[in-house]
Amino acid sequence: MHCFFTVVPHFMIDCCRECCTFLTMKGIRKIVIILLAMVISVAVVSGCSKSIPDEVEPNDTFGRAQKLEEDGSVRGFLHSTGDVDCYMVTVTGSTVLDISLSAVRGINHSLKIWRGDGSPKLLKHIDDYRKSAPERFCNMYADRGVLYITVQHGDKDPKRPNTENPYILSVKTRSLAFLEEQEPNDGRVSATPLSAGKEVSGYFSPAYDRINQNADHPYREEDWYALDIALEGEAPALIDVELSGVPGVNSVLYVYNSAMGEVGAYNVNGTGEGESARGIGVTASGRYYIMVTTEGYHSNNDVPYQLYVSQRQYDSTMEMEPNNSIAEANVLQQSEISGKIFPGGDKDMYKIPGPGRPTMFTIEVVPPDSMDISVNVYNESSEKIFEANQGRKGESEIIPNVYAAKALYVEVLSRRGDSNEQAQYRLLVSSQPYVSGYEIEPNGKKASATAVNTDTITGYTSFPGDVDYYFLEYPKRKNLRFGVKAALGSKIKVSVTDPLGYIIRSERISGDNEKSFTEMIDGKGYLIIESVDANYREPYTIDIRGE
Fold first, then answer.
1. Are 384 and 442 in contact (CB under 8 A)?
2. d(C-alpha 454, C-alpha 276), whole Å
3. Would you call the peptide bond into 184 cis, given omega within 30 degrees of 0 as the criterion?
4. What is the C-alpha separation between 381 and 178, in angstroms, rounded?
5. What pTM, to 2 d.p., does this model score?
6. I need a surface site. Which of 111, 246, 380, 382 has the fewest CB within 10 A?
7. Tens digits of per-residue pLDDT, 22-46?
8. DSSP per-residue letters across 239-296
9. Rounded to whole angstroms, how far apart are CA atoms 505 and 494?
10. Which of 28-37, 216-225, 251-260, 322-331 has the lowest mean pLDDT?
11. In whole angstroms, what is the distance from residue 200 CA to residue 426 CA?
12. pLDDT, position 441
């Protein structure tokens, strides 16, 4: 800002003449007042007329860099398409620099920041916008030493010289806050230290990192934080990560384990809203990493984000993320565990340890009222053997009769992509030793029919349209009486076949009554149970007696 005062007010001149003519006490006081006013005017003129210095060419190399004060500005021109203007800032202590470059009509310019100790090293390259726009990097951290700032043409528009409209390069400094991001922290090696229970602030600045050559996310500006966790007695713990929202920014949150494996990527909410990661499992002491970035190369140089990590004790009734695959499955240690489907697309995998003997399992998932849950069950060979997706939103999914002697894996998910950061589902698993006569799924075809070697069959209509085959075999032709009882509220169709599987008789039974009928089995045959109206909780039973 320039202020110019070139004319002394007439009243001052008139007063001086009067005072020189009549040197009374009153006149002397008036002279003193006038002189004080003139001194103040000179001081104001001197302070307001301080101008921004011009660049001094040549300044196109580090050796010829022009000195720039920590809180100073300089005015310059990009005289040619290859012109580079180099400036040197000497930092005397831990400092945060706000570096801005004013807009120049028709010119696309950029900033580069270099560490000057020894051979200069490029730290940041800021080229966010196209021609006629300013550039800014609001939180460059530096300790004692020399920084170089170079101004040159950007890459987003054709380069052209300019000698008419100058740029203004400004540097403002402030002290580093107690817990604040330390730029550049663009990778794991330069990650800013972070502690559980202490909030740290940072900025989405600049919009692009021109040094980042990651093939999947080129030029993405990333803020990395290192979190050191020491477990008490190596007992597992859970961490929760909270990232506040910033106006105009669609933020994304990543969490990595000590081996740099991605634990999760969280981009659930929209622009201006925060993100969170909850229930991240920590099973060993070590260094973990959190990375903050944006979707769409957004920036905000004025409003910081807040990052907070909390640590809590883990118990075996809670889900531990990540558990998105069989390899990462949480091992069930009790008959019940709680978890959350979050973010959208989340899948939670649990392992039921192998019982070592034939066992019947009942698996149920009780969702929150706002969610439609699905359940898959896999055997030890990772083959899907059951699927349950019959319930509506807020209704349980039940698989009543899973036969296994080895480990099982239960996957909980939402096929609609629903998620809920707050509400939990409950996974309930019960078991009993296998008893002869119980249906063994899958038995939906002749080839997989459950062999009958007892007088009573117990089975379930496990899913809509379920069909259960049972194989009957006797030394010779035999008349049999079948006493069928359907589960309460269900309807089933029972058919008897000849040895080749052709149906010779069918009966329909509702759950509010029992039905008996007699049919001859010619040595071999099949009993087929078809679900008309299912009951997933209660079994149907069939007593078989010879006549």
1. no
2. 56
3. yes
4. 52
5. 0.78
6. 382
7. 344 445 454 444 444 444 333 333 4
8. EEEEE---TT--EEEEEE-TT--EEEEE--S-TT--EEEEEEEE-S-EEEEEEEEESS
9. 8
10. 28-37
11. 34
12. 93
